[in-house]
Structure formats: structure tokens, C-alpha cells
Design a protein that fits this description.
transmembrane helix, 8 helices, hydrolase, about 200 residues, Metal-dependent hydrolase, transmembrane, single chain, mainly alpha, membrane
Length: about 200
């Protein structure tokens, strides 16, 4: 899934605070969005392994959410929303495609690394690849709570949805463009930028 889909899902998850602790809704939505984005900061490293922890984020989220429910504060609500969103991002990457350069070709059997069990989880391909039409549809559905919440984060939700739409429109062409650029780079630099 797109990083923006994960962020919008995290924001939608944080929007649950509107019903249980509306005074913390803004911080919960913002922290949910940040937690949804956080695992994808490993794009520069070993993607879906360095910062994706489906089991460990889940184990950390349970007491954090319990603490937020028992002693709600800006810090406890933010921590609970962040960890829950990071956990759901990490786990839900198994519902998408693999890590290959062209995930629509479905050649990889690695979706997300499970550090607890020491193995890669295979992709389910419910969302075939990041930027697929069904990914954009999921992003739009997850954007609804944020769009309806007319506080300062509404603009961020709309911006994320806009980025999602543009990315989905150009997703497949980006790979070809990247390869064309890499062909024009010095061989040593290109080898560091692209996995062959």
C-alpha cells in the first residue's frame, strides 16, 4: 500500500477519539497519521524490515492504548495512536504486494519481515501493489473521517488524498522513468540506487 494510505488509515484510527475523548481527537488523529507513516521511513534502508515490526509494535500498542484509556493525556493518547497505527501499517503490508520493482508482476514472496518469528511474511495481494486502483480506493475510504473532521487536520487529509491520486496515476510509469534515469548515471552510482 501507499504510504499515504497507511497515514490516512492511521488518521481514521485516531478519529475514534472523537467518540471516546473528543478533547484529544486532534492529537490522536495527528499521531495516528504519523504512526501510519513511520514504518515507511525505512525506504532508504531495508524496506519493510528495518522499521516494520508487526508483532513488536502490536505488543507495544496494547499497554499504550490501555494507559491512554485509563489515564488520557496528550502524551498517552498520542503514544497509543502512534503505536497502534504503526502496528497496523506493519501488519497490513502483508495484504499488499511484494517488494519487487514491478509488484504488479507478483514475483516476490516477501511482503513484510516478522522479526519475532525471524522470517518474511508472504504477500496476500489483496491490494495488488502500492498505487493500484484498489489502493487509491482504500485511501479515499480512510480519508472520509478526516475530511468530515473540520479541524486543522482536514487540509492535511485532503493533501494526502491528492498525493495518493497523483501517485496512483503515474505509478507504473515511475519505474520506467527511474530505469531511464539510472541508465544515464555513472555505473557505480546506478548500482547503489537500483537493485537489479
Amino acid at each position: 500500500m501507499m504510504a499515504t494510505t497507511h497515514a490516512l488509515f492511521g488518521m481514521a484510527l485516531g478519529a475514534v477519539a472523537l467518540f471516546v475523548a473528543p478533547e484529544y481527537a486532534t492529537v490522536a488523529i495527528a499521531a495516528g497519521g504519523a504512526g501510519g507513516l513511520f514504518p515507511d521511513l525505512d525506504l532508504a534502508g531495508d524496506h519493510r524490515k528495518d522499521l516494520h515490526f508487526p508483532v513488536y509494535f502490536s505488543l507495544a500498542a496494547i499497554p499504550a492504548l490501555a494507559l491512554a484509556a485509563l489515564a488520557p493525556s496528550t502524551v498517552t493518547v498520542a503514544a497509543g495512536a502512534f503505536l497502534a497505527s504503526a502496528a497496523l501499517h506493519s501488519a497490513s503490508d502483508a495484504l499488499g504486494g511484494g517488494l519487487e520493482l514491478r509488484p504488479w508482476e507478483a514475483t516476490s514472496d516477501e511482503a513484510v519481515y516478522d522479526h519475532f518469528n525471524g522470517r518474511w511474511v508472504a504477500p496476500r495481494r489483496w491490494i495488488r501493489y502500492d498505487g493500484a486502483p484498489e489502493d487509491l480506493l482504500a485511501a479515499a475510504a480512510f480519508a472520509v473521517p478526516g475530511v468530515l473532521y473540520a479541524e486543522p487536520l482536514q487540509q492535511a487529509v485532503l493533501a494526502l488524498l491528492g498525493v495518493s491520486t497523483v501517485y496512483a496515476l503515474v505509478r507504473k510509469r515511475l519505474v520506467d522513468f527511474g530505469e531511464e534515469v539510472a541508465e544515464r548515471l555513472p555505473a557505480g552510482l546506478a548500482a547503489h540506487l537500483i537493485d537489479e
